[in-house]
Specification:
3 helices; 5-stranded mixed β-sheet; mainly beta; 12-stranded antiparallel β-sheet; 2 domains; 447 residues
Length: 447
């Protein structure tokens, strides 16, 4: 389906029926022989990414018990999202039964348009979430919580027909374009900084082909007065262009060409051009990528560099071939989520000129209310052929204007979260939204 929004004319509308007569449409009977449940189903909302707005969904869907811990839930909802070729989003909602509903699963996939407002996107997700929860609750025996209305009953217009790309005349032939620009100025008595940025993108996505072209320019002007009264000035103009063309060979294989071109003062590159054929294998089907993904990616091709200053190897310009291999794994399950990426690349003229990266993160629920999260990365760096023979000044290093020689990079972060008290989270109070340090919610993994 291309939309699942009440505003744009979904097929069904859900509303409360706690005080309404039973629906004329018979509910599905519970599959177990246990007594029909009473009250409301407990729902745990598990979301990270775009439009994870807990307050909005709790306000709009108030016929379930929203709870804060997954262990007490009967319905565990995991929502993931990814961008579509038209610049919108595709949302995948997985409904997983727990406790008395163990073993039951359901799934809904919807799409929103790039031109949709934030409210329209939230309404689309709310509508799909309502339908999924109602359908799931009916299979569990909650037969009195909802009723079904046709749009004609609600006085709405007839639903719009859904058509495929072959059934419409598209003057853009599925191409989408985007232009962005911004400016920023900051300063005080002894320093000033001006930044100008702009980029443009074009893309076309079909089941067989994926084409993305992304480019932009940036300008930065920095002036800082030193303690001795002298002035440090730096003016930099950079640009980039990154094309990508991918062809779907089979269910698990893709081939393509990716490239990069541009100017990067930080890495002493007046001009750089890389072009590399690429091959990717997905161990899982591509349509499962938002929940689990394991891919192997390989590229090989030439790279041209023209430098601002002579490098530590005495080069003003050079062309080198290099190859790279990476392995990516990610998974999102009721227990949490995890991802790890390993990448190795080297120049073919000297295998000693290499870079190896390993990074990963995990968020794991240990027990009721207790979860840990960790993130780490490490890199072994031996491929800095672009370093200037003239070195880097202290100002350039402190402002990160020039790269310095290094043989490794690393970073790590670890933390935990422990939550206790009431498991229920049905009440929404929007008074003083920025007070008390709470702010507005909406981005976490469940609530």
């Amino acid at each position: 389906m291309t939309r699942s929004s009440a505003i744009r004319g979904g097929l069904l509308g859900l509303c409360l029926a706690c005080a309404a007569p039973p629906a004329s449409l018979r509910a599905q009977e519970p599959t177990s022989t246990a007594a029909v449940p009473t009250g409301r189903p407990n729902v745990f909302w598990d979301c990270q990414g775009f439009n994870c707005n807990d307050q909005y969904y709790r306000t709009e869907i108030d016929w379930v018990n929203w709870i804060r811990v997954p262990e007490e839930s009967e319905i565990h909802v995991i929502m993931t999202s990814q961008r579509t070729g038209a610049g919108g989003f595709e949302y995948l909602l997985d409904f997983i039964g727990r406790g008395s509903a163990e073993g039951r699963t359901d799934q809904i996939r919807i799409q929103t348009l790039a031109t949709d407002t934030q409210r329209e996107q939230l309404d689309a997700v709310t509508h799909a979430l309502s339908l999924g929860l109602a359908r799931f609750a009916l299979t569990m025996g909650y037969t009195t919580l909802t009723r079904v209305e046709g749009l004609a009953e609600a006085g709405a217009a007839a639903a719009e027909g859904l058509v495929t790309n072959e059934q419409v005349s598209d003057p853009w032939n599925l191409w989408t374009f985007r232009i962005n620009a911004n400016s920023n100025i900051e300063g005080e008595e002894t320093e000033r900084e001006i930044r100008l940025n702009g980029n443009v993108s074009a893309g076309r996505v079909t089941p067989t082909w994926k084409m993305n072209f992304f480019g932009g320019m940036s300008f930065e002007d920095i002036e800082i007065e030193r303690s001795d009264g002298t002035l440090f000035e730096e003016e930099t103009t950079e640009w980039f262009f990154n094309p990508l063309i991918v062809y779907s060979v089979a269910d698990h294989w893709s081939v393509g060409i990716q490239g990069q071109a541009g100017r990067n003062r930080n890495q002493n590159q007046k001009t750089y051009v890389n072009i590399a054929p690429a091959l990717e294998y997905s161990f899982f089907p591509y349509d499962e990528a938002t929940r689990r993904s394991l891919t192997a990616f390989y590229t090989i091709g030439p790279s041209y560099f023209n430098y601002f200053e002579i490098t530590i190897e005495g080069e003003e310009a050079e062309t080198r071939f290099r190859e790279s291999f990476s392995l990516d794994f990610s998974q999102r399950q009721p227990w949490g989520d995890a991802s790890i990426r390993a990448e190795y690349e080297h120049f073919l003229h000297d295998f000693g000129k290499y870079r190896a990266d390993l990074n990963g993160n995990v968020r794991f629920r240990i027990t009721r209310g207790l979860s840990v999260n960790a993130r780490a990365n490490v890199a072994w760096v031996e491929n800095q052929i672009y370093l200037s023979a003239g070195g880097v000044t202290d100002e350039e290093a402190l402002l990160d204007l020039r790269r310095r020689a290094t043989s490794f990079e690393y970073g790590a972060q670890i933390g935990f979260s422990f939550q206790f008290g009431s498991i229920y989270n049905n009440v929404v109070n929007n008074r003083f939204p920025g007070g008390g340090g709470g702010g507005r919610g909406g981005g976490g993994g469940g609530f």
